[in-house]
User: Fold these one by one.
Assistant:
Number 1:
Amino acid sequence: MRAPALAVTLSLLLSAAPAAAFDWPVRRADPLPRDPIERLRWDHINAWHALSLPDLRLALARLDDAPESARSLGLRAVVLRLQRRDDEARAALRRALSLSPDRAVLDDPDVALTAAWLAARDGDFAEAARLGRHALARMARPSALSLAHREALSLEVARWSMARGPEGLDDALAILRAGASTAAASPLVRATVALALARGGRLDDARAVAAPVAATLQGVIVVANLPSGATLPEEVFAAVGVALLLGGRPGEARASLAVAVQGSLDVWRPFQSAQLAAAQRRAP
């Protein structure tokens, strides 16, 4: 009797649940195999805000339809930041990080940049500078960014680093020097280098950097060099004003330095006030 019983048992086993019932652990395919924000990344849009682009609506619709994942939520935060929907961007980023305990979602440079920009908006400049440097390192390929886009981003991250106070000056200089070679750097990059050196008490070095570019800063409209939505715009006026002053143009420096003092962070207000006073004394 054993043989027939065994045959019946095997028959029942083979005709029962299909192989798919065995739930072997398999890696799920990425629900977003293509890049839904390809045309919205920093190498295409050199700005923190870009409110009216049709690509924003298309990207957000695609991300809304995608299964929830760390990646889809991180990319959603980028689009929401571009739309100036800061609170929603923060919420999406928090959820993305909760689904990415190893913080691998921040390996996407535009997600890291969004996290950095939100930290800067919240006044956490140490975190903003750290994430900004991480994003710049992820964009290290020569073809990833144009020189102008890399400079704009390097300037923003350097300003975040300087906003930490004296302890952020060396990092700011390293960021600026990595963003463009000295020979190719724009006048605004060189002026910001001079600002960091002067704030660190290295006045001779700062003058050496400022002198060759002071003439090119005359009449510059500094706001035009800021990406839309940039933080710390007063730091641009501080850089231009200090470079003009150290470059021997105190009369031209006064207007920029006056704006810099009005909006200066507490940590740099005494420095900015002293620079403005020096320009007023030396001007004809």
Number 2:
Amino acid sequence: MSGPADFPALATPRLRLRELQPADAPALLRIHGNAAHMRWFGSEPMRTLAEAEAVIELFAGWRRLPAPGTRWGLERRDDGTLIGTAGLFAWHRGWRKCTLGYELAPEATGQGLMGEALAAVIDWGLQHMQLHRIEAQVHPDNRPSLALLERLDFAREGLLREVAWWGGRPHDLEMWSLLAPGWGSSQGGAGGRPVQGISTDPAPR
């Protein structure tokens, strides 16, 4: 894995966004092993600790790509609990675009935590990756995720028919996107400007 100096740790009022570590595997397994909660995530539920460890190593490998991706662990500042992950991947440098992905533990939903985390992730991507476009693909039945994207100024572009396959069958996904000039417009901010008290965390744990 990359060292702390290499990883862009961030902080929001309630969260630390930091590099995932092997010790996070049990918490990740607890989240991804919940088949009902993760039914729209796009992959089969995790069953073993080894699978969780492999995913953490996969995310670490994103940082070593020529066009690096970054996946942050989302840690509560008050008690240090890992409650999910969020990240930017599939970066196309020339086109100045990438894809957004995220998941949250069941007990952490409904508190605005993922919106807080994604605002930090988006700000970082626009500023440090010089992104113009951020894409997100979401299952049409995942209403909370679609509502979250709308609150974050993403716009629905259309339906990708049977673009994904998990659970033994194909799935449609909706394509949503955020363009840099529109970021923060619904929240009184300007494109690329922080809107939720986001800062770099100088001392990630």
